[in-house]
Amino acid sequence: MPDNALPRSFEDFNEARKLGFLAAKEYKERGGKLAGCLCSYTPLEVIDAAGMAAIGLCGMSDEAIPDAETVLPKNLCPLIKGTYGFALTEKCPYTYFSDIIVGETTCDGKKKMYELLADLKDVHVLHLPQSQARSYAADIWHEEVKLFASELERRFGVRIDDGKLRDAARLRNRYRRALVRLYELQRSEPPAMRGVELMSTLLASTFSFDVETFVGKLEALADERERAYAAGERPVAATAKRILLTGCPSGGVINKVGKVIEEHGGVIVCLDDCSGERANRLLVDEDADDILRAISDRYLAVNCSVMTPNDARIDNTAAMARAYRADGVVEVVLQACHTFNVESSRVQRRMEEEGIPYLKLETDYSAGDGGQVGTRLAAFIEML
C-alpha cells in the first residue's frame, strides 16, 4: 500500500464507506498509526501508550463472506469469515489502513484464521490462557502483555513507559465509567434509552481515532440522557418488556435482533456481550505500583466462553438480570461459535433456576433467517 493509497475498488464503494476510507487515510497522512483489534482481551492501554489508535475490526456483515469462503470453510463463525473477507477484498477502511492487527488465541477458528491473515497484513497474536483459575494464568498473561508492548516499541520505534501507561489507564477508565453511566440509565423504569441506541453507541466507540474526544461525547450523551429523563422524557413505553441480551458479540445483529426486539414490544435494558457491561465494568487500578500488571490483570478478568471453568460469566449474567429486572433473557449464538453454543445450556439452566424466561437464537449475519428470528422473538416477548 504505497503512500497510503486508496484501494483500487474505492470508486465502487458507497458514500459512507468512502468517507471511512478518507478519514482513515487523512489520519495516516497526519502521521497516525492504526492498530486493528478484534477482541475485548486486547490491552488497549498499551496501544494508547504507544501513541496509536485502536480500532475495532470484527467483520459484522455478510458482504465479504462469499470471498472469505474461497479460502475458509463454510462451517465457520461469520465473525471470523467476515473479518478475513474484509481484509481479502480491501473493503474495510480500518483493516486496509491498519499498521498492525492484534489477534488473540481465544477460539480455534480465530487463531488459525490469523495465520492466513498474516499473509495480507502484519499480525501480532496474543496467547491467552484458557483458564482464569490456574495460579500461573495471571503471570503468563502478564508476560504476553509485556511482550506485546515490546513488539510495538520495536516495530514502531516508540517508547512505552509507566507514565504513558498510567495516563492511558486513566483515560480508558473514564471511557468505561461513561459507558456504565449509560448502561445504568437502563435500570430506570421505563428505561431512559432505546436499547438499539445504546448498542449503536457502543459499536461507534470502537471506530474512534481519538479516545479523549469520544469519551467527551459519551459523557455529554450521558448528561443529556440523565437531564431528559429527569425532565420527564420517556422514549420507551412503560409496558415494554425488559430484555437482557447475552452471548456472542452483537454488533453484527443490531438490526436483525436488537431492532426486532424493540419493534415487538421489548426493550434491551442490558448488553451482556463481550464488549458490553460485563467487560466495561472492569477498571484498571490506576494507582498500582506495577501499572502494566494492573492492566494485564484487568483484561484477564474479562468473562468469555473460551475460559474453562467459566462460572463467573454465568453468575454475572444472573446478577445483571436481577439488577436490571429483566423480564426475559435472549442469548445470541453465532453459527459455529462452539464455545458460546455449548455454554448456552448452562445459561439456560441458570435462568430457569432464577425464574427468568430464556430464548436462544442461533443465527448469522445474513438476512436468510430474518423472518424466523422475528417470529421467534415476537412470540417470546408476547408470552412474557
Automatic annotation (TrEMBL):
Q: Which InterPro entries match?
A: FldB/FldC_alpha/beta (IPR010327), YjiM-like (IPR047678)
Judging by the UniProt lineage, the source's domain of life is Bacteria
Pfam families associated with the record: HGD-D (PF06050)
Q: Name one GO molecular function term.
A: hydro-lyase activity
Q: Where is the signal peptide?
A: none
What family does this chain come from, according to its entry?
Answer: Belongs to the FldB/FldC dehydratase alpha/beta subunit family.
* Protein name, UniProt field: 2-hydroxyacyl-CoA dehydratase
